Amino acid sequence: MRIRITQQQPEGALLNGEPWPAEGDEAEVPTAQGAHLVASGVAEEVTDEPSKGGRKSRARGGDSG
Length: 65
Fold this sequence. Notes:
The protein is of the alpha+beta class. Helix content is 15%, strand content 22%.
Protein backbone atom coordinates (compact mmCIF):
# COMPACT_ATOMS: atom_id res chain seq x y z
CA MET A 1 0.00 0.00 0.00
CA ARG A 2 1.34 3.41 -0.91
CA ILE A 3 0.96 6.11 1.76
CA ARG A 4 1.85 9.78 2.15
CA ILE A 5 3.06 10.91 5.56
CA THR A 6 0.87 13.68 7.03
CA GLN A 7 2.56 14.17 10.40
CA GLN A 8 6.19 14.49 11.36
CA GLN A 9 7.43 12.13 14.07
CA PRO A 10 10.06 12.75 16.75
CA GLU A 11 13.71 12.53 15.75
CA GLY A 12 14.87 8.92 15.76
CA ALA A 13 11.45 7.47 14.85
CA LEU A 14 11.60 4.54 12.44
CA LEU A 15 9.28 3.08 9.82
CA ASN A 16 10.20 -0.52 9.01
CA GLY A 17 13.75 -0.03 10.27
CA GLU A 18 14.35 3.13 8.21
CA PRO A 19 14.24 6.75 9.41
CA TRP A 20 10.66 8.06 9.51
CA PRO A 21 9.85 9.84 6.22
CA ALA A 22 9.40 13.62 6.24
CA GLU A 23 5.91 15.07 6.11
CA GLY A 24 4.63 14.83 2.53
CA ASP A 25 6.96 11.97 1.59
CA GLU A 26 5.50 8.76 0.19
CA ALA A 27 6.33 5.23 1.27
CA GLU A 28 5.33 1.70 0.30
CA VAL A 29 4.24 -0.37 3.32
CA PRO A 30 2.30 -3.61 3.90
CA THR A 31 -1.47 -3.07 3.56
CA ALA A 32 -2.28 -3.76 7.23
CA GLN A 33 0.41 -1.35 8.40
CA GLY A 34 -0.70 1.31 5.92
CA ALA A 35 -4.32 0.97 7.00
CA HIS A 36 -3.25 1.40 10.64
CA LEU A 37 -1.18 4.51 9.85
CA VAL A 38 -4.07 6.02 7.86
CA ALA A 39 -6.58 5.22 10.65
CA SER A 40 -4.16 6.77 13.17
CA GLY A 41 -4.06 9.99 11.16
CA VAL A 42 -0.32 10.01 10.51
CA ALA A 43 -0.63 9.09 6.82
CA GLU A 44 -3.06 9.10 3.92
CA GLU A 45 -3.45 6.54 1.19
CA VAL A 46 -2.00 7.47 -2.18
CA THR A 47 -4.21 6.50 -5.09
CA ASP A 48 -3.83 6.93 -8.83
CA GLU A 49 -7.18 8.70 -8.98
CA PRO A 50 -7.12 12.48 -9.32
CA SER A 51 -8.13 14.32 -6.16
CA LYS A 52 -11.66 15.63 -5.87
CA GLY A 53 -11.98 19.30 -6.70
CA GLY A 54 -8.82 19.30 -8.79
CA ARG A 55 -8.61 20.46 -12.35
CA LYS A 56 -9.60 18.11 -15.08
CA SER A 57 -7.17 17.89 -17.97
CA ARG A 58 -9.65 17.42 -20.77
CA ALA A 59 -9.26 18.65 -24.30
CA ARG A 60 -11.85 21.22 -25.28
CA GLY A 61 -13.55 21.91 -28.56
CA GLY A 62 -12.39 20.86 -31.98
CA ASP A 63 -9.35 21.67 -34.02
CA SER A 64 -8.49 25.24 -34.94
CA GLY A 65 -7.33 24.46 -38.39
